[in-house]
């Protein structure tokens, strides 16, 4: 077994025996243990009682975190003419049509969010096997297929987070940085949990939220009291 470093050992000892915490308690503990030399991301994972093999149990949505993510988002937009100009004015990093499709096919995926106007979807559709597995495929359900390009780009740049249940029913996302004030992290975590709670699919039976874990990039995870977290 590999020998644990002093920082890792201290972090694990700090969380030992602590479970079913409130959001505020979990944030304080995780933030205190985020002692790496870089600004660690605070991450949340929710284990949901859904089977994503069934369409009526898929969990997907979007939430605007009140205090942003602390991450600089690169946004790609499929648009032409005035809508392309609108995307550029709103701060999009990559804009195009067929040329952007060819660039992506060549392996250029240096963006975190992909937005498209509806008329661009026949082009974007050819990229399903590339964008889909990376959760980058534009989708009207989360506002990334839209004529309101300006709002979509600004939302992505402003800290909007998309979420989608992975295989096994786990939803995972970054909800801020360790350098954020505790109060701001609490607001972000609560907003994310609330959004996932409201996205409960019609086919979900029994307990929907089974477990919630908060952690930092390099730190150990702590579990939250699900009932308390949902009601906060």
Descriptive notes:
There is one protein chain. 34% of the residues lie in helices and 20% in strands. It is an alpha/beta fold and 232 residues long. Helix 2 (23-32) crosses helix 8 (182-198) and helix 3 (81-90) runs parallel beside helix 7 (149-157). Belongs to the universal ribosomal protein uL1 family. One of its GO terms (cellular component) is ribosome. Pfam families: Ribosomal_L1 (PF00687). It comes from Pseudophaeobacter arcticus.
Which residues sit in consecutive blocks of at least 5 with pLDDT less than 50? none
Mean pLDDT reading: 92
The oligomeric state is single chain
Distance between the termini: 40 Å
Helix content: 25-40%
The coarse silhouette is globular
What would you report as the Rg, rounded to the nearest angstrom? 19 Å
Structural class by helix and strand composition: alpha/beta
Strand order of the largest sheet: 7-1-8-9
Q: What is the strand tally?
A: 9
Taking the sheet with the most strands, its summary is:
4 strands, antiparallel
Helix tally equals 9
Strand content: 15-25%
| Helix-strand topology string | HHEEEHEHEHHHEEHEEH
InterPro entries: Ribosom_uL1_bac-type (IPR005878), Ribosomal_uL1 (IPR002143), Ribosomal_uL1-like (IPR023674), Ribosomal_uL1/biogenesis (IPR028364), Ribosomal_uL1_3-a/b-sand (IPR016095), Ribosomal_uL1_CS (IPR023673)
Subunit structure: Part of the 50S ribosomal subunit.
Function: Protein L1 is also a translational repressor protein, it controls the translation of the L11 operon by binding to its mRNA. Binds directly to 23S rRNA. The L1 stalk is quite mobile in the ribosome, and is involved in E site tRNA release.
Keywords: Repressor, Ribonucleoprotein, Ribosomal protein, RNA-binding, rRNA-binding, Translation regulation, tRNA-binding
